[in-house]
Design a protein that fits this description.
Elements lengths: L20 H6 L4 H12 L8 E5 L2 H4 L7 E18 L10 E19 L4 H12 L5 E9 L4 E9 L12 H10 L1 E2 L2 E2 H14 L5 H11 L1 H7 L1
Parallel strand pairs: 1-5
Antiparallel strand pairs: 1-3, 2-3, 2-4, 4-5, 6-7
Helix pairs in contact: 2-4, 5-7, 7-8
Length: 226
């Protein structure tokens, strides 16, 4: 653990998270609401050493906020899952894509990032604008276990009450969406591939995602097994 990700993805550094007419169609929280949510999340927390944030999807390979430290780690009680309909970042209203959420059960390997104390409010605001504008996630404190220590971190658990939560998709349907969907941040396929690539560069594995990519790239294998 603790390896650095060599970013091989071409990223649009000028992209403004949580902005645009597509976002506004499903927005439920404005900037003031998001700021209040951040304040509530931090209430009663010891911020002397900064704040940790746990990423398990695009935050692993495109955190896009100021970092003071980072390390790999594992969260127990939740697993990474393509269970959230995306009609902005990785899909459209006409053909939605799928993005990751943390769903209950199992465990999840990912990246923990520390934000320095002086940057907590500005950088968490950026993250909230990215992840929370439609309240599809529930910001949650979790324990992240690494080779060095266990830290308390903020992560984004899927909101099972949200209309965009898709809990019962078959692997074949997920594969079709991943192949075909594209949104303001690019294709759903790139999103999944970049996540798997980041995991591999860190010496981590996600067997379910690897099975999905095998189905996409070698569909005849899935057919022959039936």
């Amino acid at each position: 653990m603790g390896k650095k990700i060599q970013n091989e993805v071409d990223l649009d550094e000028s992209f403004q998270w949580g902005s645009g007419k597509e976002v506004d169609l499903i927005r439920t929280m404005n900037s003031d609401d998001l700021s209040a949510s951040v304040q509530q999340m931090l209430k009663g927390q010891n911020l002397k050493e900064g704040v940790w944030v746990f990423g398990y999807g695009s935050l692993m390979w495109n955190p896009d906020f100021k970092l003071a430290d980072k390390r790999t780690g594992i969260v127990s009680g939740y697993h990474r899952r393509l269970c959230l309909k995306s009609i902005v970042y990785r899909g459209t209203p006409d053909y939605h894509g799928l993005v990751f959420g943390l769903d209950k059960g199992g465990s999840c390997q990912g990246m923990a990032y520390r934000i320095a104390t002086e940057n907590i409010h500005s950088e968490l605001q950026i993250i909230w604008e990215r992840e929370m504008f439609a309240e599809t996630y529930i910001p949650t404190w979790v324990s992240v276990k690494s080779d060095w220590e266990t830290v308390s971190a903020i992560t984004f658990v899927i909101n099972q009450e949200h209309e965009h939560y898709l809990p019962d998709l078959e692997l074949e349907e997920i594969a079709e969406r991943v192949v075909k969907a594209e949104g303001t941040c690019g294709t759903c396929h790139d999103y999944v591939q970049n996540t798997v690539k980041s995991l591999h560069q860190l010496g981590l594995r996600d067997p379910t995602l690897e099975q999905l990519l095998t189905l996409i790239e070698y569909p005849q294998i899935s057919v022959n097994r039936k």
